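Fold it.
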Amino acid sequence: MNLTEILDLLPHRYPLLLIDRILELEPGERVVALKNVTANESFFQGHFPGYPVMPGVLIVEALAQAGCAMMLSAVENPGSKVPFFAGIDRCKFRRPVVPGDQLLLELKVLRQRGGSCKLQGRALVGEEVAAEAEIMAVLGEREGR
């Protein structure tokens, strides 16, 4: 799935759209997405000058966006839904993510009920795990759609 298709699926936009491509997708089951981390990311201006590191919360947000894309791809009329981050468990950061890194975002469904989902995710740079977490997300109704 390319960026145009991701924009059709997710409500996120610059500067908070944090996935560039979806490489593998099994709707309602699993997803593998890609985030190219460039020196032009706005958050590097203040995190940290002279030693740019991607904030951990944004790595988790990238995981959540990939998971929500997978959830939305499994529903009829995804434009009528809005994904919400509902919780996080067992989050660990294993290595810094810096400009030039490619983040591979892998998520699989642990449990799903109605419009809510618990996902197990990990963000990798090459073969190294940069972060891992269990993420809860829920699809709400988008008003006016």
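The chain has a mean pLDDT of 95.
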